[in-house]
Amino acid sequence: MTAVVRTEGLTKFYGDRRGLEDLDLEIRPGEVFGYLGPNGAGKTTTIRLILDVIRPTRGRVTVLGTDPRDARVRARIGYLPGELALEGRERARDYLAFLGGVRGGVSRERIDALAERLEADLSAPMGRLSKGNKQKVGLIQAFMHEPEFLILDEPTSGLDPLVQQEFLAMVREVRASGRTVLMSSHVLAEVENVSDRVGIVRAGRLVAVEDIAALREKAVRLVEFHFDAPVPREAFEGLAGVRDLRVEGASVRCTIDGRPDALVKAAARFTVVHMVSAEPDLEEIFLTYYSEEGGHHARAGV
Amino acid sequence: MPVLVSKSLRDYRRSLVGWTVGITAFFALYLSFYPSITKDPELYGRAALAKFPGAMRDLMGGLEDFTSGVGYLHSLVYQLFGPMLFVVCAAILGNRALAQPEESGTLELTVTLPVDRRRLVFERFAALALGLLGLAVVTFLAVWALSSAVDMNVAFDRILAGHTGILLLSLLFGTLALAVGAATGRRGIAMAVVGVVAVGGYVVESMGRNVDAISWLRWISPFHYYLDGRPLYQGFPTGDYLVLAGATVVLLLTAILAFDRRDVGV
């Protein structure tokens, strides 16, 4: 099967400023690809290149087997911009009908069903919608024509947790029907539950592409245990994967690399009154990459 | 009607209705003064000439025959105020085609629709042209009806010629705004260019009649191809109007080529 997206040496400079450099990326049919990186790393630049909003400085990109400059291919794509602008007195319902019409027709029932699912208000003038409601309208327009390929730039920003769950369910349904999703985020937690693979981009360069399960094993996690009585430091020293150990009276703090198994078993010998395990944050995963295999990238990424 | 054209016209609707009502009211107000002018043409004719110094009179189009129906209509509607009101309206609509949505961010989703960029520019131009046509038709009928009501004795086809000129002139400036917006994505730049070309062009054309040093510049002023043929007195200046239409086509092609090759929203 041909790749949904294939880029070769894709590079974009804005004047002297690098947006993206030498991106070689393949997104396979039927997968959910999470595209991670801090703000300004090049995620939106990549997405805009794929959609022909901006043109590459050099390199090539093909989407669904064709050049993105062919406007027809865009009817098969659903796109949620990272900074969605909706304004004016027009009602969301009318705007959605317009977008659906240009993309080949979307039934009113389909729009209503999605609106109900996300609890979106389609009757108010778009300029007066809250950020969350605008984002819902953006999601509806991206999903409504059942595109083969969905490109979602920071899709969960502004959504409350319940709607986020509904959105993730919609993404899973898209994958179940064999269609492909590219979604970007700066928070791993947002994409890790639905993504098959993630790509990590930093300072305009693709640092790694990983299966999500493999990435989770690499994630560095900050863990804290609080016990009912002071614990001896020796009990926690030398455990597999444990780093930066600090034992202060009845509390233990450390970071763990990979599986927490050894640490949990060591802690289980004492009486645990409280434990905190921070979600691995992307920044720390980056640091892991830079300290281990990152030397090469760090040099190239200057 | 292509869906992008109808969508743009829907977006422009409120603005167009506002301009139509405003311009019609403006014309109606001035035409309603005409009967009192005809009661004492000597007084008002002299007053108009005496009130303004020579250069100022040139700017107002001469004011020579201010008290005749055609002179009054020309001086107050077709010389300066009518074209300028239309030009401002056209520049605002021309900016709404690309530059304004690009600055506000709404253009991003539009360019990811399965519509070729060149077609997008063309359809936005078509909406601009149709919008201005609507404005021109309504205000034309209003001027014709009012001028008949106050017995100005200006022939229907002369008013039509003047109004056609205003339409072509404003379409040229609207397309100029659209083209600058298509090339730069900045509506401030587009407005500045339209402002300089419109005000500069008008001054050059009106003053240049009597100032040799700048008279050669009249050939590049868009207003020259509207005012010089004196459509209200002499009917359609066909050649001049073709120049306006041709320049509009050139600007449209420039806009299409410029927009097709550049990054949007950066």
Automatic annotation (TrEMBL), chain A:
Name its cellular compartments: Cell membrane
In this chain the ABC transporter domain maps to 5-228
Coiled-coil regions in this chain? none
Predominant localisation class: membrane
Q: GO cellular component annotations, sorted alphabetically?
A: plasma membrane
Membrane topology of the entry: Peripheral membrane protein
Q: Which SMART domains match?
A: AAA
InterPro entries given for it? Answer: AAA+_ATPase, ABC_transporter-like_ATP-bd, ABC_transporter-like_CS, ABC_transporter_ATP-binding, P-loop_NTPase
UniProt GO BP: response to antibiotic
* Gene3D superfamilies hit by this protein: P-loop containing nucleotide triphosphate hydrolases (3.40.50.300)
Keyword annotations for this protein, in alphabetical order, are: Antibiotic resistance, ATP-binding, Nucleotide-binding, Transport
Which one of the record's GO molecular function terms can you name?
ATP binding
Query: Do you know which Pfam families this protein is assigned to?
Result: ABC_tran
What is stated as this protein's family in its record? Belongs to the ABC transporter superfamily.
Please report the name of this protein according to its UniProt entry. Answer: ABC transporter
Organism expressing this protein natively: Streptosporangium minutum
Automatic annotation (TrEMBL), chain B:
Query: What GO cellular component is one of the record's annotations?
Result: plasma membrane
- In the record, what terms sit under GO molecular function? ABC-type transporter activity
Tell me if Membrane is a UniProt keyword of this record.
yes
rRNA-binding recorded as keyword: no
Q: Which UniProt keywords apply?
A: Membrane, Transmembrane, Transmembrane helix
- Bilayer-spanning residue ranges: 16-34, 76-94, 125-147, 159-181, 188-204, 241-259
| Entry superkingdom | Bacteria
Q: Entry's PANTHER family?
A: INTEGRAL MEMBRANE PROTEIN-RELATED, MEMBRANE PROTEIN
| Name recorded for this polypeptide | ABC transporter permease
Q: What is the organism of origin for this protein?
A: Streptosporangium minutum
